[in-house]
Amino acid sequence: MFWELGVRYEMAEWQWSAEVVRVSAAPLTVENTAYATLGHRFGDWTPYIGYGRARNALAVLPLPAWAAALTPVIGPVGAAQAQGLGSVVVTSLNNARVQQSSWSLGVRWDFHPQAALKLQWDRVRVQPSGSSLWTGADGQAGNANVATAVVDFIF
Predict the structure, then answer these.
(1) N or C end: fewer C-beta atoms under 10 angstroms in the chain?
(2) Quick count: other Cβ atoms within 10 Å of Cβ 124?
(3) Which residues, 6+ apart, have CB-to-CB distance to 97 below 8 Å?
(4) CA distances (Å), 126 to each of 61, 98, 147, 152, in order?
(5) 48 and 38 Cβ atoms separated by less than 8 Å
(6) Largest Cα–Cα separation, the chain
(7) What is the tens place of the pLDDT at every residue in 55-83?
(8) Position 147 pLDDT exceeds 90
């Protein structure tokens, strides 16, 4: 299931937007995300501030402890293999979690009727077992500063 609700308001110099998204693919994942931004236009320049948050609604899964219960049924080798497979699956599911929030500061410069330059700085805070959006992440908590420069254009 996927649903999304967004609103945007622009009146004179002020503009704001907000969006809420829910993705449900239980028991694999249930993600809730939201963001809000507020900006004020000064001629061709629009400084803005924003906050965003992404959360997995499912609890972190504990590693299975199957070996002792399965050994009498399928033997020690089969039990060890089943334990290993279960651990890999649970670790993969836990590593696919998103738990983070960010504050953003930026400015947009409309330097042409069909083009704009956007500069943005984000301060991201990642929670434990919530770093799946980060390449090479190990599930540990962390912080990051991200700077971006983008040119938007219409052709």
Answers:
(1) C
(2) 17
(3) 29, 56, 58, 60, 129, 130, 131, 132
(4) 18, 8, 17, 28
(5) yes
(6) 76
(7) 988 888 899 998 889 999 999 999 999 99
(8) yes
Rounded Cα gap, residues 41 and 108, in angstroms = 9
Instruction: Tell which wins on pLDDT, 49 or 12.
Output: 49
Phi then psi dihedrals of residue 44, to 5 deg: -85, 0
Q: CA–CA separation, 25 vs 30, rounded Å? A: 6
* Distance separating the N- and C-terminal Cα atoms of the chain: 35
Interatomic CA distance for residues 98 and 121, integer angstroms? 20
Which helix H or strand E contains 127, and what residues bound it?
A: strand 115-131
Residue with tokens 């704009």: 116
